[in-house]
Design brief:
Elements (H helix, E strand, L loop, with lengths): L3 H15 L4 E6 L12 H5 L4 E7 L2 E6 L3 E6 L5 E4 L8 E7 L4 E5 L6 E6 L7 H4 L12 H7 L7 H6 L9 H11 L12 H20 L39 E5 L2 E5 L6
């Protein structure tokens, strides 16, 4: 599934094509993805000017001058294509701009979503209402993480993946950040000291910034809107490297919980 860096990369790729431009065509090409596409999406978006593109957690937000925000989630296999030569079977939303640019949202598995909310109601949007702070924001720091995990017996990896604690973190980058910080994914969250949380927050920000700079990680179907692959996978230290040597010389291990793989080094992490 595309994670925070992939969505940030996607939004950055869409921005030069959409921002400041008027939408001359908005055409949903099916009635639903993971859930129904808003029935009034075409009416409310056609003719509107895009005034901003941002990201919240793993969602992209496209704001118009009519006070509407189209919120998209890429699901497992979604991606935007810019100026495609022709439409494909799984292109489920078509946008055209006054500059004759064309964008399509392609989603073969249809696990993604499209929603349309008023700009002043974005914070109350269902998935956003209970989300924690953005991991790249100043609000996400060691003191916050220590406070939100106080008394918690759940593993730190599980707590980091809980969107109520921090928004947008996913499996790949949590594995990488925990390795960089030297913390075992299974360590009880409430038992981690404030200095170790300071180090973990720093590691999370470093890993996310590096992944965004590299265009994300290309897993299965994800590519950037311009068709380029993300290259952060070449920098993975533990993720996907079971049985290979960690930088310390010990083997990278893998554990599976609820169908999700955790990669770590027993020598580097404690």
């Amino acid at each position: 599934m595309p994670e925070l860096p992939e969505v940030e990369t996607t939004v950055a790729g869409l921005r030069p094509v959409l921002e400041g431009n008027r939408l001359t065509l908005v055409e949903p090409r099916r009635a639903d993805l993971r859930r129904p596409i808003p029935a009034d999406l075409r009416q409310r978006m056609t003719g509107a000017r895009v005034i901003g593109l941002t990201r919240r957690a793993k969602y992209g937000l496209i704001e118009t001058d009519r006070g509407d925000v189209m919120i998209f989630h890429l699901g497992m296999s979604g991606r935007w294509r810019i100026d495609p030569a022709e439409l494909e079977k799984h292109d489920h939303l078509l946008l055209e701009t006054q500059e004759n640019r064309r964008l399509v949202l392609n989603d073969p598995r249809r696990f993604g979503s499209l929603d349309l909310v008023r700009a002043d109601e974005v914070d109350a949007f269902g998935p956003f209402a209970a989300m924690g702070p953005e991991p790249l924001s100043d609000a996400f720091n060691g003191a916050y993480l220590k406070a939100v995990t106080k008394g918690r017996k759940a593993p730190i990896k599980q707590l980091l993946l809980d969107q109520r604690n921090v928004a947008g973190l996913g499996n790949i980058y949590v594995c990488e950040a925990l390795h960089m910080a030297g913390i075992l994914p299974s360590r009880m969250g409430g038992g981690i000291s404030k200095p170790r949380y300071d180090k973990l927050v720093e590691a999370i920000k470093i890993v996310l910034d590096a992944a965004i700079a590299a265009g994300g990680s290309s897993l299965r179907d994800f590519v950037q809107p311009d068709g380029e692959l993300g290259y952060f996978s070449k920098e993975w230290l533990v993720y996907g490297r079971e049985g290979e040597d960690c930088a310390c010389g010990a083997p990278v291990l893998r554990k599976v919980d609820s169908g999700r793989s955790t990669f770590y080094c027993r020598k580097c992490q404690s």
